[in-house]
Amino acid sequence: MCGITGIAALSMQTKISEHDVCSMLPALRHRGPDDSGVYLDPYQRIGLGHTRLSIIDLAGGAQPMHNEDKTVWVTFNGEIFNYIELRKTLLKEGHCFHSHSDTEVIVHAYEQYGDDFVQHLNGQFAIALWDGNRQRLLLVRDRVGILPLFYTRQGERLLFASEIKALLPQLSEAPRISPAALDQTFTFWAPRSPNTLFENIFQLSPGHMLVVEKGQLRESTYWDWCFPEQSDYHQGSDSELAEQLYDLLADATSIRLRADVPVGAYLSGGLDSSALVALIRRHSDAPLKTFSIGFEDQSLDESVFQKQMIDHLGVENSRILCQNSDIAENFPATIFHAETAILRTAPTPMRQLSGLVRASGYKVVLTGEGADEALGGYDLFKEAKIRQFWARQPQSEWRPLLLKKLYPYLETSGAQAKAYLRNYYSIGLDNPNQFGFSHLTRWFTTAQCKVFFSQELNAALRDDAVTRLSEQLPTAFGNWHSFNRAQYLEAKTLMGDYLLCSQGDRMLMANSVEGRFPFLDHRVIEFANRLNPRLKMRVLNEKYLFKQAMKNQLPRQILERHKQPYRAPDIPAFFSTNPPAYVDDLLSEEKLKRYGYFDAQKVGFLLKKARRGSSIAYKDNMALVGVLSTQLCHYFFIEQFSQTIREAGTTYPSI
Amino acid sequence: MKNTIRQYILSNLLFTDDESALQDSESFLDGGIIDSTGVMEIILFIEDTFGIKVNDDEMLPVNLDSVDNLVAFITRKQLIAA
């Protein structure tokens, strides 16, 4: 995996300088510590930069890379897992290769298939490809958003890079935080792509291609999560379909074990990572090392289940034990890498974990991310199903009680649960067919945190995040089964915009570690999307077909375990002992007022409550982490703009 | 008592000292003042502050879901205890 960057001229008069392209590289050194390179075309229309983490063809894979006659150039971050098969096909078509790297396949696939080349790639990628003959630049991002790609326009130049911090040296002034992006963050947990936290800085959306030609930008969608009209599902018995799913997962896993360096795996102790480790064991002879997180806070710790899988499969394991104080100390660096505001501290331990991977001599890990989205695992999907069922009979006394099965903390007494369930989960019950029905309780709860927005921020908000989202859905959305609609919203909001970026790529690449995600192989997603929803969740049994597919590989306790969402301590991480100085500093009345995003008095009350240890509600936890991370973003990328550029790649931030 | 409860709700759930932000009869649930975990905070507060114990079968909106409901509920509990 690597870092890519570049600058394209948008007018005939503009010339790109090598010096400018080079200025963007130091900020990406953590993504590619092994090597770097720059290409500038003879007419100075384009400059491409690259920092390399070498994994495949260690000797021959240097970038930017070109075709036979040096008319097509590419700088590429990611992996093309089917490069061996694709290379064979392209050799038959007469293409000449001068390396064994997967990067070169991209160049020749473009020559062979034109813009459709991307349809032939199975992998995770952010690609910038320059076609010198036609004087056009293609920017492409993988189907689901595993790898990042940001861009911004500066006068007559288009700047692009794997991370926002690489764009900063070429900006004339510090970026500004976008009120709309904060509104989206405090609703969906992240800005919705193509937005980022910053005004005028965009990310290429997953499954999109941006073509820059004759000074014009043209964006298109080449792939999206797509579900059949109801009734057009896969035919076949449960066991036939389970077998097909197993074969697909086995292949998706084995092509992700291709590397010229050893490959490890994350093991959380949940169903998905356990299944993944079992698949690796079955389809590879190489000794497998697994990596796990344990928590000081016992309610979040999954060590018992991790141990069970380690023993069951006989794999090696290394672990970190995450203390509350680790999170508080590491949180600023988390935000520096994530480059956005977040509502949970959960990414921080993920960065510690990738640090352990790197320290153990590994550069690549496979993870179970994506199984819940593709195969139907989340509690939210269950909640939506129960609420749908309840909406058919809104007066029913017992239908809402099914929610207690889902959230055991509601299990206090019949009377209490009933009364509060009715009130809290009945949102939108009068119209269960509305577009966001599955997500209304989450979005509503999260949006309560907006109570901390300052008057200025509220005044700058134009339209509401949920309404905007409803206008951006595919036309077929309304025809899909309600379960598939929930899956789509989850994949396109939380997974693409938060889990794979702030909690995924950024926390991995901060330590130069590449993540690989077999469950997000597009063949797996496309197969799963055509399954009848009842095979994803049979009554309230989540990931039903997946469990059927894996039942011979896993211990029963793992298969039958109640799903535990991955979480890290939020407020207690900062306030169970004295908080680090930066917390008091950034949440001081003076800084809150100067930065201007939040109401200093309200945050003051929240702080008092957090210090007393009486903040229990999700809302308080999300709000505090959201406010603190926004303040950190302002500090790093606006207040310390010049210093952040100067020190890029040489030091990690400390405050 | 009413004032203590109001101050608690204002500063801990509404995060303000603006008295006009809270009507005594206003439902905490309908106003989005508490989420599904917020009711636990209210129970902890009244148990600690007014020396009463809230039984499982008393955890109802009719007892806990507005300033007025809380005052009536706590008054009744204290009477019974005395």
How would you characterize the overall build of this protein?
The complex is a heterodimer of chains A (655) and B (82). Chain A has 655 residues and is α+β, with helices and mostly antiparallel strands. Chain A has a domain at 2-180 and 195-221: 4-Layer Sandwich (Glutamine Phosphoribosylpyrophosphate, subunit 1, domain 1). Chain A has 28 helices and 19 strands. In chain A, the strands form four sheets. In chain A, strands 2-3-1-9-8-10 form a six-stranded antiparallel β-sheet. A six-stranded antiparallel β-sheet of chain A has the order 4-5-6-7-11-12, covered by helices on one side. Chain A has a five-stranded parallel β-sheet with strand order 15-14-13-16-17, sandwiched between helices. In chain A, α9 packs parallel to α18 and α17 (482-499) runs parallel beside α18 (501-509). The longest helix of chain A has 22 residues, at 618-639. Chain A is globular and about 75 Å long. The model of chain A has no long low-confidence stretch (mean pLDDT 92). Chain B is mainly α and 82 residues long. Chain B has a single domain (2-27, 37-81), classed as Non-ribosomal Peptide Synthetase Peptidyl Carrier Protein, Chain A. Helices cover 52% and strands 0% of the residues of chain B. Chain B has helices at 2-12, 38-50, 61-64, 67-81. In chain B, α1 crosses α4. Chain B is globular, with a radius of gyration of 12 Å. In chain B, 30% of the residues are buried.
